[in-house]
Amino acid sequence: MPLHEYACHACGHQFETLVRSAEQPSCASCGSTDLEKKLSVFAAHGGGSADPAPSACGTCGDPRGPGACKLN
Fold first, then answer.
1. Domain count, the chain
2. Which residues span the domain enclosing 28?
């Protein structure tokens, strides 16, 4: 079942819900079916090692900015 995000035109409430193919979702706040489907943002896991994000050291002088030396 896909998870979809909606905004209700009647009351302005924004929510997400699991929707089966034959279901018509309704607003979790007012019950209206006058909904706008929103673009969902999702996270993906790359499956590789979980390297921490580079931190800014501020001492290397790299022209790309603080912490850029960690990207090499």
1. 1
2. 1-40
**CATH number of the domain to which 27 belongs:** 2.20.28
pLDDT in tens, 3-46: 889 999 999 999 998 888 888 899 989 999 999 998 776 666 66
| Secondary element (H or E) of residue 8 | strand 3-8
50 contacts: CB under 8 Å, gap ≥ 6: none
**Cα end-to-end span (Å), the chain:** 41
Whether 27 maps to a domain, the answer reads yes
Of 47, 71, 68, 67, which is closest to residue 57 (Cα–Cα)? 67
Q: Which two tokens stand for residue 51?
A: 């390297």
CA–CA separation, 42 and 20 (whole Å)? 19
